[in-house]
Specification:
12 strands, 5-stranded antiparallel beta sheet, mainly beta, 149 residues
Length: 149
């Protein structure tokens, strides 16, 4: 699970969406705390309700908004989409398929695949960083990249 790299509680945004069409909402958390983000973006966690608790089914290390739920599905779960940029990566949109147990942890490597503008529902917009003063722990301001074509 993503761990805070600073002594303060991490800042985050959350959204709820029924990713597996079982009538219960999964909790999608985008951790945008300064020490949990890097040039490749910030961490994304996906939790599914199991009884009265949540189980982690996605711990995606890096990605930028817009973050979307796609219409495509794998193993009964909707694919997620993130923007990939930074750290030398060519900017692009990546789709993350569910493998039956969870979402891949790295959006820049298979089984993630190019999004190619699939229709989806936006969970987190690119303006998410305008809502707060988030700065990198060591390197300065967080500046989200331009959205990939």
């Amino acid at each position: 699970m993503l761990a805070a790299k600073s002594p303060k509680v991490p800042e985050f945004e959350e959204a709820f969406y029924d990713l597996d069409n079982d009538g219960r909402m999964e909790r999608i958390i985008y951790v945008i705390d300064s020490c949990n983000c890097g040039t490749g973006g910030c961490g994304l966690m996906v939790l599914t309700p199991i009884g009265d608790k949540f189980e982690l089914v996605g711990d995606i290390s890096l990605g930028w908004p817009p973050i979307e739920v796609l219409e495509t599905t794998h193993n009964g779960w909707h694919d997620l989409s993130v923007h990939i940029s930074g750290g030398g990566a060519m900017p692009h949109r990546a789709a993350l398929p569910f493998d039956g147990k969870g979402y891949p942890s790295n959006a820049s490597m298979p089984p993630a695949y190019p999004n190619n503008d699939q229709p989806g529902t936006t969970l987190f917009e690119t303006d998410i960083f305008n809502k707060r003063d988030v700065r990198f722990c060591v390197t300065g301001d967080i500046t989200p990249p331009a959205v990939a074509p």
